[in-house]
From TrEMBL:
Protein name: BCCT family transporter
Ranges of compositional bias, category Polar residues: 515-535
Main subcellular localisation: membrane
Region (Disordered): 514-535
Annotated Pfam families: BCCT
Length: 535
């Protein structure tokens, strides 16, 4: 009994214990391989990444638009009025805390890392001819692709389906277990499917780990580049030390829990983020940022469908899938835990309100932030040295060089590291919360089990410092999310069924009672009595 208590599994059944140790064992084995043979793991990951994009890139694009149509229908139909947790549920968090948790968990350090990496990469290696949109500069086209992938339609494709599924099936409809497999029970509620339930939960855990590990790995390598280039300090050991400090902060958050730990970390991160981007706008190429943000915004809004479905089928390269399909795969992996976490903190809010918090408000913030970051590195005087740094040392080096070119570089570098650190802590916090919840089937998992998940994820993330190529980490979410994509269609259907049945039970009954009451009132009114007397 003491053994299970150490891992927080004292109340877990045998299937849940097996799920924890099998997933944790796979994660640990991958980390060990990465440390012992980083070159071999790098080659394997890149090979798998290329294979998935070549043969299944089209599938991620098609699935994205199916999910976009589904989310749009659910949010703007009558089902948008359904309240997560039931019509009597009250919001658990104030609006700022709610927005802060959704934003920091949902968008992570990719705003900074890929906000630099993607536009510069596209300018350096543009789409094959003919360009998907003619008559525009490559800089504006590159930033427009960034808007496509991280603002819209990316936001509306991948997060809402998971948030809807958890909100409607787990919290509103109600279920006996807090697991991804519980969603299947809407239409497959039979003990004969237990092996399928277990396999779905395993695939979900693996996909979540892939998305989170990539984000932590990206952040670790950016830390290393900033420490070395901006501050001239030994990168590897200091980065390990920084992650050690983050680990202690994370463990403190785990013990403080959702309301005191994750909420406060998210609020602090949002404040730091606003300060950092305000400083960058002031000390950076302000006029160019304003102009290219508007110009790229016009390219984006005028060509959303063209850019979203761009595959360049006659080109020899796999350029389009290396961007759009990669992003959609990462969204799928990341959306598993983000959507479930958003549903958890959105109890008491309607589906429509949750969509606004998850897509509309962050969409505006992300457009502004990517305009600032993209305009910063694409501006004259920045673009050439940053492009050269990208070619020689990858995205982390490009970001670090951009900082050194900017006034108040040490201050900006320190703020960027603090913001990324905040994103790492909040992402780890929410990820382990959901990993532990899915493992134990409990909405409020114990701190011991969450801590073990955090240690395993941090170990895997730091391992990525040993990988020789930054691009290898793109394979984590892309490859690990693929087996789970079919389940996305299943949970979309299950969400619709849950919403339809709940609406019939709650809203139709309420409307019928209102109609009956209204009819009785009219019948008993003096006017109607007078009419009867006259008759």
């Amino acid at each position: 009994m003491r053994f299970w208590h150490i891992f927080g599994l004292e109340r877990a059944d045998n299937d849940e214990k097996l799920l924890f140790f099998m997933t944790g064992g796979l994660l640990l084995a991958l980390a060990v391989v990465g440390i012992v043979n980083p070159q071999g793991l790098n080659s394997t990951l890149n090979g798998a990444f290329g294979w998935v994009l070549t043969y299944f890139g089209w599938w991620f694009m098609l699935l994205g638009f199916i999910l976009l149509a589904f989310s749009t229908f659910m949010v703007f139909s009558r089902y948008g009025n359904i309240r997560i947790g039931g019509q009597d549920a009250e919001p658990e968090f104030d609006v700022f805390s709610w927005l802060a948790m959704v934003f920091t968990v949902g968008y992570s350090g990719s705003i900074i890392i890929w906000g630099v990496g993607e536009p510069i990469s596209i300018v350096t290696n543009p789409p094959p001819q003919p360009l998907p949109v003619g008559g525009v500069s490559i800089e504006s086209l590159a930033l427009a692709f960034m808007f496509i992938h991280e603002v819209f339609p990316g936001l509306a494709m991948w997060y809402p389906p998971f948030a809807l599924a958890f909100g409607l099936i787990i919290y509103t409809r109600g279920t006996d277990s807090y697991k991804f497999s519980s969603m299947l029970k809407v239409f497959l509620d039979d003990d004969r499917y237990k092996p399928l339930y277990w396999a779905v939960d395993l695939a979900a855990l693996v996909a979540i780990i892939g998305g989170v590990a990539a984000a932590i790995g990206f952040s670790a390598q950016v830390f290393s580049a900033l420490v070395n280039t901006v501050f001239g300090l030994p990168p590897t050991m200091l980065t390990y030390a920084l992650f050690g400090v983050l680990g202690l902060v994370f463990l403190g958050d785990v013990w403080l829990g959702l309301r005191k730990g994750i909420r406060n970390a998210a609020r602090i991160t949002v404040v730091l983020m606003l300060i950092t981007f305000a400083l960058l706008l002031v000390v950076g190429p302000t006029l160019f940022i304003a102009n290219i943000g508007l110009d790229a915004g016009g390219v984006w809004l005028g060509n959303i469908f063209r850019l979203s479905l761009y595959t360049a089928p006659t080109a020899e390269s796999n350029w389009a899938h290396q961007w759009t399909s990669f992003w959609w795969a990462w969204w799928a992996a990341w959306g598993l835990f983000v959507g479930s976490f958003v549903a958890r903190v959105s109890k008491g809010r309607t589906i429509r309100e949750t969509f606004a918090c998850l897509v509309v408000i962050p969409g505006v913030l992300l457009w502004l932030q990517h305009s600032i970051v993209g305009g910063w590195v694409l501006a004259p005087g920045y673009i050439e040295p940053v492009s050269n740094a990208l070619s020689s040392g990858g995205i982390p080096n490009a970001l670090a060089i951009a900082v050194t070119l900017t006034p108040l570089a040490p201050v900006l570098g320190a703020l960027l590291m603090l913001v990324i650190a905040g994103y790492v802590v909040t992402s780890l916090d929410s990820a382990v919360y959901i990993l532990s919840s899915i493992t134990l089937g409990n909405e409020d998992p114990n701190a011991r089990n969450r801590a073990w998940w955090g240690v395993l994820l941090a170990f895997l993330g730091v391992m990525t410092l040993e990988l020789p190529v930054f691009d290898a980490m793109q394979a984590f979410p892309t490859v690990l999310a693929l087996p789970f994509t079919l389940f996305l269609l299943a949970i979309a259907y299950a969400s619709y069924v849950a919403a339809r049945d709940y609406y019939k039970e709650e809203f139709a009954t309420t409307e019928e009672d209102t109609l009956i009451t209204s009819t009785k009132t009219e019948t008993n009114s003096p006017l109607s009595q007078g009419q009867d007397d006259d008759d």
